[in-house]
Amino acid sequence: MIQIRNLHKSFGKLEVLKGIDLDIQDGETVAIIGPSGAGKSTLLRCINYLEEPQKGTIAIDGESYDYETMTSKTAWKLRQKSSMVFQNYNLFQHRTVLENITDPLIHAKKMNKEDAKRRAVELLQMVGLEEKAGQYPRKLSGGQQQRVGIARAMAVEPKVILFDEPTSSLDPELVKEVLRVIKRLSDQKQTMVIVTHEMQFAKLISDKIVFLDDAVIQEEGSTKELFENSENVRLRNFLQAISLDDL
């Protein structure tokens, strides 16, 4: 279980997150939605300390971390419990697909090279890219690169995988292959937090929706409840604004 309490993050005088409280259950898929600039990606990056909050605590799997007293050692421990899938892939272009996955296994999980290679091949099979193991990322499509990114995130067996707009950089015809892999992980009860603008996908995959706006959580609850029965005016206006039904 992940528990976030009183999370505050500012950039200069701009307060981006104002006292966020959020619980994420083991095996749960949580979709974070909201307008641009609401703080969604910042919240995601604060979870594993890619952004440094000014205040707040996070507990993962019973171990608590205070952002105000975080050291490089405790930040490293926190990051071992999560993996990030970035919207722009963030693969090492000078390393092969296989090496992009074996490197974290060797350095973070302390596996020997042969075991790391064996595990990397298994992960590439899971995302349908075993035949691309020896290629470099620049030779792959955007969808294929993102699937490699997901395989790399899975490699370290994190408590939670964090997805920051995983399909936003993809051409429409490549989106489905990535969403299919994420759906498989959801079916396997991998704990995930996904920032997305894909509302149909959020409805399909998520157990819980978190609606973030004006730097605070305006509403959260089950996917069915929020999409079908929400009385929150801001959420209803947001969903109506992005709907294409009345064009």
Task: Write a structural description.
- The protein is α/β, with parallel strands linked by helices and about 250 residues long.
- Helices cover about 40% and strands about 25% of the residues.
- The strands form 2 sheets. The protein has a 6-stranded mixed β-sheet, sandwiched between helices. A 4-stranded antiparallel β-sheet has the order 2-1-4-5, covered by helices on one side.
- The chain is globular, with a radius of gyration of 18 Å.
- It contains 9 helices and 10 strands.
- The mean pLDDT is about 90.
Main beta-sheet strand count, sense and barrel state: 6 strands, mixed
Structural class call reads alpha/beta
Q: pLDDT below 50 for ≥5 consecutive residues: which ranges?
A: none
Shape: globular
Rg of Cα set: 18 Å
| Number of strand elements | 10
Spatial sequence of strands, sheet with the most strands: 6-7-8-3-9-10
Task: Give the helix level as a range of percent.
Answer: 25-40%
Query: How many helices does DSSP assign?
Result: 9
Q: What's the mean pLDDT score? A: 91
Q: Give the SSE string.
A: EEEHEEHEHHHEHEHEEHH
User: Strand fraction band?
Assistant: 25-35%
- Span from first to last CA? 42 Å
